[in-house]
Amino acid sequence: MSEIPTVRFLSNEGDLIKEPNIKPSNEVLIRSYKAMLLTRLVDERMIVLQRQGMISFALSSLGEEACAVASCAALDFNDWLYPQYREAGLLFYRGFSVKDYIHHMFSDGKDIILGRQMPNHFGSKNLNVVTVSSPIGTKIPHAAGAAYGMKILKDKTIAVCYFGEGATSEGDFHAGINFAAVRKVPAIFFCRNNGYAISTPAREQFASDGIAPKGVGYGIPAYKIDGNDFFAIFETVHNARKDCLLGKGPFLIEAMTYRLGAHSTSDDPTRYRSEEEVKKHWEECPLKRLRLYLEKQGLWDKDKEQETKELYLNEINEAIEEAKKTAPPPIESLFEHVYFELPRHLKKQLQECLRFYKKDA
Ligand SMILES: Cc1ncc(C[n+]2csc(CCOP(=O)(O)OP(=O)(O)O)c2C)c(N)n1
Ligand SMILES: [Mg+2]
Q1: pLDDT tens across 244-277, in order?
Q2: Protein residues with C-beta less than 5 angstroms from the ion ligand 2
Q3: Is residue 176 within 8 Å of residue 238, measured between CB atoms?
Q4: Ligand 1 pocket, mutate which of 139, 198, 281 (most atoms under 8 A from CB)
């Protein structure tokens, strides 16, 4: 069995065990910590709102926030991102507003994708973030194809595709990685191995030693990293991006992390894993590790933490109040943005819909 060492720099106590070669600036570290904190606070509120019946569904990135944020911080703004659904942090890092995010979670009339997706299936054309789709793994061939386009056009950009370890059991993973490898495209395939695909533990999903050896099988460089270590993610993604632009891509990165929360609001993890197991993984919490590091460097303290939390919670509360008052998307919007001219059969369906709506009003 192939042995790929795990890249790790940051201890659970927030000390650097060894110096990374590529280190983010203090400004990037603080911006990233804030994006991780914001992700956690928004996620917490969304789960409560779902329990109160205000929104239909919610997924959280609890314990995995560093994967999206540290990787995004190491990229260029023009790189295209293909997230799964636990990557809200990359939107916040790129400047997506809390209001826009919460309108999306409410699927209301101000949701930029007009309620056409489930909550947590965000996207932003302005921020080069391709909208999440529910079928697992489908974005892997899309990212490979987009990166091939970038190569042909000689763009100085790359595509980064995020997915869980469960997605690697899909055919799309193999088709996408193989295509990307053969065409030597500038892409990073970033796998968050959080130990579970809903209730199925990783040990029941594949017989290989994790995901990284699968990259070796397809002939591409593969890394295994501590996915809760901001510095390990930042350096690995930074180097992989640089090498992608030199024609040495694609890369497969397996980030070892842990899903501290439930899969989604439709899941009860107490049915398939113990509290002791979860408690043990809290020690590796990526937010705590980065906060302790920042505190030890004199870049953060209790007052800043308190002020930032208050600021974000106010922003979240305001956004929720606004979303509660926002009407759902107009029924006509269901028929928009696909055809330049609406075909006859859809015109008929639209008329029927409007008739029903009028009847209800
Ligand atoms: C093709 C497909 N099969 C099954 C599902 C149902 N499903 C939704 S999430 C999920 C687990 C995915 O696990 P993983 O890729 O490890 O991501 P994680 O949720 O752990 O972040 C499954 C099976 C789906 N959405 N799409
Ligand atoms: Mg998983």
Answers
A1: 999 999 999 999 999 999 999 999 999 999 999 9
A2: 164-166, 194, 197
A3: no
A4: 198
